[in-house]
Design goal:
With 151 residues, the chain is an alpha/beta fold. It has a single domain, classed as 3-Layer(aba) Sandwich (Rossmann fold). The chain has a five-stranded parallel sheet with strand order 2-1-3-6-7, sandwiched between helices. A two-stranded antiparallel ribbon has the order 4-5. A hairpin with a 5-residue loop joins strand 4 and strand 5. Helix 2 runs parallel beside helix 3 and helix 3 packs parallel to helix 4.
């Protein structure tokens, strides 16, 4: 099953993204990460089955059971990993950290990945409009046209 893989640490954002994707693309597996290293490890074995990737940059510290905080890294760490791989799917970069997101975009484009920038605005409304439209268009662009001679 093809996968939509998303790095996003904000639960309300994940919930809206999940609702958008489930409504229109229920045939694909939706996989969320809030930790860059965990996503990278996942992609090491699942990149070939990934239909599209969405990356946030800034990730909040994660409280652990012992009360300590764990640094979940950044989307740049995933972008660095992907830049060393053969491009295989579109990537959406959606982050309020414009400088870091632009840097990820340049890195991935230089490595010949198809990238799309989404600029979050407002609270969550950008997800069901700009982000989802970008996701949908990127998914549609990956579909191979049917050969009209083969019916």
């Amino acid at each position: 099953m093809k996968k939509i893989v998303i790095l996003e640490d904000n639960k309300p954002r994940r919930d809206v993204m999940r609702d958008c994707v489930r409504d229109r693309f229920h045939q694909f597996e939706l996989v969320f990460f809030d930790d860059a290293a965990e996503m990278r490890t996942y992609l090491e074995t699942n990149l070939r089955d990934t239909l599209i990737i969405s990356l946030d940059h800034d990730l909040e510290m994660k409280p652990q059971e012992n009360g300590e905080l764990k640094d979940p890294g950044t989307g740049r760490e995933v972008a660095d990993f992907l830049a060393a791989q053969t491009p295989s799917c579109p990537i959406i970069i959606a982050s309020t950290n414009t400088t870091a997101a632009d840097s990820m975009d340049y890195l991935l484009r230089d490595a010949h990945w198809e990238t799309h920038r989404v600029y979050p605005w407002g609270d969550l409304e950008w997800i069901s409009t700009q982000w989802f439209k970008t996701l949908r268009n990127a998914i549609v662009s990956t579909a191979k046209p049917r050969d009209k001679n083969k019916v």
